[in-house]
Amino acid sequence: MPVSLEEYFRTTFEDKLLVKLPEREDEHLTPATRLLEKRREMQEVEQALNAQKEEFQMKMESIQQRREELERKEYTLKESLLKFDKFLKENDAKKNRAVKKANVERDAKLQRMREIEAFSEEAKHLQHELEIQKIKLTKHMVFQKYMDRVLETADEFSENKDAILRYDTLVSTHQHLLNREIDNQDRLEKEKANLMKFVEEKNNDIMSFNNQLANLQMQLETAQSKAVKWESVWTHIKNTAARQTLLLGRIKMATHNLFMLIHKQMRTKAESSETTEQQLQKIQIYIKDLTEIIQETGRQSESKT
């Protein structure tokens, strides 16, 4: 914690800077003497202060040197720590590389051991196969002796390879004929399958046509039945229409006669262009008026009586 210069001087020179007041007995000194005394005391205090300043300056220089020394030591320590950390990292890296290299070498060694074991097994297998082939060769020597006797008795072949070539030719021809027979059998099976498929499809078509024919026959019978029904309905409609037409004619005739009778009664001339509906309306009006007249006449008769 830094200390201010003023505080340092105050605490250090507080006793030394105190000026003693002159006693009463010195009051008889002249002002010049007292001034000289004061100057002397000031010089002493200034000398003491300069000495303390030099001492303080020396202490500050010493402290500064110690601080610089500590900073140098701190820097050196940091450098040492960085170097040590770098050393540890390099050491760890070397250790990791060494471990990795050891692992690689161990894996390579294991791989070589596995390869050696595989080669050993393969060598054992090949040795076993060699023994088997030797046994087969021993057994097949009978055929070699047989071929030698054939060559001695047959004039067609002069060497073993001629007989083997003839045998290969016969085997190839036999295989070719066998393959062609197999192809013919395959084609025959395919044709049979196609024929069966064709027959099945045609049978399905025939069944479908029969079903359609049956449906059409049912539709024809239904249509014929409906035709008979609608013919009777049409006959009934025609008969009903004739009766209705005759009834309508009678109604029109009766309406016309009643209309003419009303005009004759009213002594007015009827218009020939009026329709039956118009005639009925006029008849309705006439009947309504006549009914009101009759009712009024009846009321008057009742009132008189």
Description of the structure:
The protein is mostly helical and 305 residues long. It is 88% helix and 0% strand. Helix 3 (160-266) packs across helix 4. The chain is flat and about 180 Å long.
Q: Write down how many β-strands occur, each being a DSSP E stretch of 2 or more residues.
A: 0
Q: Radius of gyration, rounded?
A: 76 Å
Largest sheet: none
Spans of at least 5 consecutive residues whose pLDDT stays below 50 are: 15-25
What is the overall silhouette?
flat
Helix percentage: over 70%
Short recap of the structure:
With 305 residues, the chain is an all-alpha fold. The protein is 88% helix and 0% strand. Helix 3 crosses helix 4.
Write the layout of secondary structure elements.
Layout: H1 5-12, H2 31-153, H3 160-266, H4 276-304
Helix pairs in contact: 3-4
What descriptors fit this protein?
305 residues, mainly alpha, 0% strand
